[in-house]
Amino acid sequence: MIFLLLLYNCFLFLSLLPSARSSALTTAIAANERLCFYVDADKAGEKIGFYFAVQSGGSFDIDFDVKDPNEKVILDGKSERQGDYVLTANTVGEYSFCFENDMSTLTVKLVDFDIMVESEPRREAPAKPGQVADHTSALEESTFRLNSLLLNIKRTQKYFHTRENRGFSLVRSTQNRLFWYMVLESLGIVGMAVLQVYILQTFFTKTGRRYKV
């Protein structure tokens, strides 16, 4: 009997957990390019989580906008490096999430983003409140607290992943600049040496005027 009660409690809390449809992607956006991604909201009131971070390219910034099924802009930003938003789908239909690399003429931006549609089912009151609720309230609270902690850990991992990619991109860019600086410096030194040898050689080999005495 106790085993059946525990099994029922586990099934109840698994059904109470929010169901989510997510899409985690990484895409490259060329200069003057606009890319859009779409998700469907099946019913009004659903929560849409939207996260993005520019991993490499230029100043690590991008323009973005979010539109509802009626083509109304509900969220936008200019030259943003990263963002983490939660939207409420008040209208059923297709929502668009667009990135635009319009400020760059040559630089390609690498963007990591995550779009998640989450719907939380309503909690139904148990048939016998005095019986089931007493056994499940503590487990229910622990379950939702654990879910919140896991989401915080996921956001922290994304943050450090972004910092790592940006740091690697910065180091690689600095290495390329130092390499070409050393190449130009070496060419300048070689050119100065050749020029000095040529000038000294002209001093000793150039014939001057001859005069008879």
Automatic annotation (TrEMBL):
Topological relation to the membrane, as annotated: Single-pass membrane protein; Single-pass type I membrane protein
Record's signal peptide: 1-22
Pfam family, one: EMP24_GP25L
GO CC aspect terms: endomembrane system; membrane
Keywords attached to this entry: Membrane, Signal, Transmembrane, Transmembrane helix
Subcellular localization, as worded in the UniProt entry: Endomembrane system; Membrane
Residue ranges of the TM segments: 178-200
Keyword presence, Translocase: no
Domain GOLD intervals: 34-117
Highest taxon in the source lineage: Eukaryota
Family annotation (PANTHER family): TRANSMEMBRANE EMP24 DOMAIN-CONTAINING PROTEIN (PTHR22811)
Similarity section: Belongs to the EMP24/GP25L family.
Name assigned to this protein: Emp24/gp25L/p24 family/GOLD-domain-containing protein
